[in-house]
Design goal:
- By secondary structure, this protein is mainly β.
- The chain folds into two domains: 104 residues, Carboxypeptidase-like, regulatory domain (Immunoglobulin-like, Sandwich); 735 residues, Maltoporin, Chain A (Beta Barrel), CATH 2.40.170.
- It contains five helices and 64 strands.
- The chain has a 22-stranded antiparallel beta barrel. The protein has a five-stranded mixed β-sheet with strand order 3-2-5-6-9. A five-stranded mixed β-sheet has the order 10-17-18-13-14.
- The longest helix is centred in the N-terminal third of the chain and has 18 residues.
- It is globular, with a radius of gyration of 30 Å.
- It starts with a helix and ends with a strand.
Amino acid sequence: MRRRWLAAALGMALASAATAGAQTLESGQIRGIVYDETKAALPGATVTLTNAATGFTQTRTSNESGVYQFVQIPRGSYGMLVALTGFASTQVTGLVVSVGAALTLDVTLKLQAQTETVLVEGTAAAIDTTRSGVSQLIDERSIENLPLSGRDYRDLAQLSSSAQVVPGLRGGIRLGGQQSDYTGLAIDGGDARENFFGEFFGSLETKNFTIPLEAVQEFQVVTNGFAPEFGRSTGGLLNVVTKSGTNAIRGSAHYFYRGKDLTKDDALGTPSSIDNQHQFGAAVGGPIRKDKQFFFVAFDVQRQSGPLVTKFARDVRGVGAPEFGIADLADLEGTNTQFQNLFTVLGKYDVQIGSNDRISLRVFYSQNKTDGFSGGRGQNQIQAAFHNTESFENSGHNSVLTWNKVLAGGRGSSELKVSYYDQKRPRQAKSDLPEIFIADTGTFGREFFLPINGDSEKFQVQENFQYAFGNHDVKFGADVNLFALRNNVFYGWNTGHYEFATLEDFQAKTPYGFIGGFGLNGLPYEEAGTNADRNYQSGYGFYAQDKWQVTPKLMITYGLRFDGTTNPEARSTVHGQNVWSGVKPDLSTGPPPQGPPSDWKQWGPRVGVAYSFDIGDMAAVFRANWGLYYAQIPTIFMSTPGPNPSDQVFCFFNPACMPPGGYPNDLSDSSPAGPGAFKFSSTYDDPKLRNPRVMNTTATIELNLSRNYTATATYVYAKSDFLRTGGFSSTVWNRNFTEVGEDQFGRSILGPPIDQTMVQAQAHGSLSRGNFHQAVVNLTRRFANGYQFFVNYAWSQNKDNAASERDTDTFFGPQDPFDIELDYGRNGLDIPHQFKAAFTAEIAAGFRLGGLFIARGGVPYPAYILQDTNGDGVVNQGFSNDRPVVNGSFLLERYPARQPAFYQLDLRLSKEFGVGEGRSVEVLAEFFNVLNQDNLYANPKISSVVPAVLDRIPQPGDCFAAGGCGPNASPAYRTLNQISPGSTPFAVQLGARLRF
C-alpha cells in the first residue's frame, strides 16, 4: 500500500509538472487535497510547512474541497504536518522544492489514535514544472561535482538535449531549435539579457563567468514551452537561482590551476593558448538573526595568460612596408602574451518578516579585462599581427530586489520584483596604422572597428498576483522592461582599411578596395562618431493564466500573454527616396522608414493539458502544450545603432571617396561640406518589421520506472515566422534594384537602381520562416545510494529560408533580393543527432567521481562563390550571396555539407578529508577531453569556396584549384579558416576546496 500511495502521489506531482506555469523562476509551490480513508475531502485540516534550515514556517487550512496550497516557497527541503481533530496526524518529510517546482501531494488522514509518518523522497516529488516541453535541471550536487574548465555555470547548459553552443566567437547558446539571439537568461528571476547585441549580461565578445560558481544554487534550462508569465524568448531560457544563508554558518574556499604542462598540443600540433590559469575564491553564508535574517557572500577570481602565435599564411620574409615604418613583415610574426582576468563578487540578504512577508536583495559585480583578444577565447594562432588585436574591459553590476507576500489567508500571494543592471565596455586598439588585409596572406594594422564603446543599462519592474480557489489556481501580472545604450562610440575604419588580393599585389601597391570613415559637416571624425544620447528599447508585458484541476488525474492550463516593444527612434535621416518593402508575392515600394517600427501585435495564447495514469506499478503522465512565443530583435540589427549617422560616413569600395593620392593615405583629415558631396548607401528597416514569433507544440510521455528512475519521451514542433533577414553584417541584403526578368531557376534578373540617389539600400526585415522538428528521450536517476545520472538523445531537423544570427560563422544574405523562398532548406543550426550524459557518484575510499559526455553530428557549413552572378553587388566578407549552379540544372543549397562529428568526455575525481568538526578539505583533478579526440573542423569557422558552375555535387575534401588541397589552395571545398581545432585538447586541472 505504501508503494501504491507513493506512486499515486508521484503521479499527481507529474501531472502538476505538466502545466504548473504559475511559478516564479526562483521559488515553488506545494498543493494537494486532504482526504479521509474513504477518499472524502476533509475541510478544516491544519497543514504546517517547515524548513528547519531557515526556520521558514507557514500554516494553511484546507478549504471546503479539502484543498490546501503553499505558494512562493523558497527553494529548500521541507517537512509538513497535517492534523485534524478526530484523526491521526500525518508527518511528511523530505519534500524538496527545486527551482520552479510545483508539487502536488495528497494526504490521507486515518481514524486511528496514532501518528503515521509518511516518507516522501524529495528528489522523486520535486519534478521541474515551469514548462511542458524539454528541460534539464542541474542541481547543487552536479554543479559541485561536474568538471568545468572555466567555472562558468553556462557551460552546463549544453547538457540539455535541445541546446547547442554556437561555434566560434562568443559561444552563444541556442535552445529549442532557435537562434542564440533569442535565448533568455534569468538570474534570480531578473532579466539579464543585453538587448543591443542579444548577448547575456557581461558576455561581450568572449564567453566568461559573471557570477561566482559557488553562489549558484540550481541551474535550469527551460525550452520549447513555458508559462505565459515568461516572455521575450522564442527558444527557451537559462534560469539561475543563487544561494541564500541559513541558520548555520556554512562556507567554502577553493583554488584551481591549469597550465601548459598539463595540456597536450592540439590536433594540428599547436601548443595550448594557456600557459597559466589560476582560479580562486570563497563563499560564506549564515544567520544575522536566527530564523529571520540571513546573508550570503561569494567571490571568484581568474587569472589566465598564454601565448598568441602570429604567423602569416605565406612566406613574407623580405617583404617590407616602409610607408608604415615596417622593414620586414616577418618581424610581425612570433609569439606574444595574451591574458584574460576575471573577477566577480556577489552578496545576498534575505529577511523573513512574520510568516507572510519575505524580502530578498541580491547584488553582484563582475569585471573582465582582456589584452591581445583575437576573436575567441582560447584561440592560439592568427594570421595577423599582434597589434591587430585589442584590449577591452567589460564591467558592471546586477541587482534584484524581491518582495514576496502571502495574501487572503494563504490562498493568494503577491510578488514584486525590481531589477537593474549597468555595464561598461571600453575597447581600445593596439595600433594607429591603417588596416591592411592581404587575402592570401593575413592582416596587420588597426582592427577596423576600434575604438568602440557601448555602455548599457536595464531596469525592470515585475508584479505577479496568484490566487487559488476551488480547483483553480489563477495568476496574472505585468512587467516593464527598459533597456538603454549610452555613451555610444563607434568610428570604425578611422585609419583606413586597404584590401589586396595577393601578396604580390601588396608589393606592387595595387589594392582592389578601400574602406574608410570620416566626419561630415565639418566635424572631426571622433566627434562625429560619438553620441551620448541613449538608444532605448522598451518592453511592456502582461499575462493571465489559470491552472484548472479538472479531476484528480486531469489538469488543464490556459492563458494569454501580451508583449509590446518600443524600438529606438532614428537619430538622423535615413537617406533615400524609394525603397522596397516585403518580398514576393507581396512587394511594394515607398519612402524609406525613418527608423524601425514598434511592435504591438505580440499576442501569445498558451494551452496545456496533463493526464496522469498508472501502468502497473508505474506512475505515468501524458503532457502536451501549444503556444505562441515572441522575442525581441537585438537593436544592433536596426538602422539606428550607430552614433551620429548624419555626421559620419563609411566609404565601402567606392572610387568616388578614395583618399587623395591613393594608397597608403586615409580619409582622417577629409571632411566634405555635407551629405550632398556624394551618393549614400543607406540601411533601412522594412515597414513590416516585427519581432520573431514561434508557434510551439510539444507532447511528452513521462514514466516513473521506480522510486529513483524517470524516463521521458518528447516530440517538439516549432514553426517560426518573422525571422530576421538582413541587418548588420551576417546577412547583407541590398535591394536597390529593379527586376527586369527571371532566370531559369526563378531568380530575379536585376536592372537599374530603383533609387538613383543611393548606391545601395541595405534592408532589414522580418520576412523569413523556419520549421524545427525534434524527438527526445531521457533517462534520469535521482541521487540515491551514492550516485545519480541522466542520459538523453535527441534527433532533430531544422530548416529556414534566409534567417541568420549575429553569432553565426557564416555570411549569407538572400541570393534573390525579392524572393527569399528560393533559399528554403537546411540551416546552420541543423544537427540531426545529439547524445549527452552526466553523472556524479560516491565511490570507494571516500572518492567522488563526476563526468559528462557529449557527442553530436557535424555542424552544417556553407558553400560560397566569389563571383557576383546576379549583379547585385552584394559581397560579404569577400563572398557573394549567390549560389553555385550544378550541372546547369539546379542550385547548390546554402549548407550542402557537414563538418565531422564531435565527441568529448570530461571527468572529475576528488577525495574529501575531514579536518575537524564540520570542516573538510577536498582535493581534486579534472580531466578534459579524456579520449583526446581531435574534433578537427568540428567547431572553428569552416567555409567552402567553390566555382560558380559545377559539374557535380562536391564532397568534403574536394578541391577545385590546381595544386590540390594544400594550405594555400583556393578555391577548395573545405578550407580551415582558424588553425585551432574545435575542442579543448586533453588537459588536466588540479584544485582544492575547503568546506566549513
